[in-house]
Amino acid sequence: MIERQHVWLGPEATSFDEPCEACLAARESLAEETVVHGTLRSEADVGFITCRRGHRLVVHRIGRADLGRANAGVPA
């Protein structure tokens, strides 16, 4: 069983379509039913979503700190 599922979004992304790995591993659903559609507010760095079967996914935003440094002229 898959303990945790993670979705990684880039600094500008606000939506995603990702397969639920737990559903795929358990073969509980047809391929198109395993896709989780979600959003993450642009100001948020972490969020949570649940697939249709109740499996939880953690959504992370990556690269924001590096983007902020680049905009401020600070080396990474």
Summarize the structure in words:
- With 76 residues, the chain is an alpha+beta fold.
- The protein has one domain.
- Helix content is 20%, strand content 34%.
- The strands form two sheets. The protein has a three-stranded mixed β-sheet with strand order 1-5-4, with no helix packed on it. It has a two-stranded antiparallel ribbon with strand order 2-3.
- The longest helix is centred in the last third of the chain and has 9 residues, at 64-72.
- It is elongated and about 35 Å long.
- The model has no long low-confidence stretch (mean pLDDT 83).
Total strands: the figure is 5
How would a textbook summarize the main sheet?
A: 3 strands, mixed
Order of helices and strands: EEHEEEH
Strand order of the largest sheet: 1-5-4
Instruction: Return the structural class.
Output: alpha+beta
Helix fraction bin: 10-25%
Alpha-carbon distance between the termini? Answer: 38 Å
Number of domains: 1
Uncertain parts: none
Q: Note the total helix count.
A: 2
Morphology call: elongated
In round numbers, the mean pLDDT is: 83
Radius of gyration: 15 Å
- Percent strand equals 25-35%
Give a nutshell description of this structure.
With 76 residues, the protein is of the alpha+beta class. Helix content is 20%, strand content 34%.
Task: Tell me the layout of helices and strands.
Layout (H helix, E strand, L loop, with lengths): L4 E5 L5 E5 L1 H6 L8 E5 L6 E5 L5 E6 L2 H9 L4
Parallel strand pairs: 1-5
Antiparallel strand pairs: 2-3, 4-5
Keywords:
76 residues; alpha+beta; two-stranded antiparallel ribbon; 5 strands
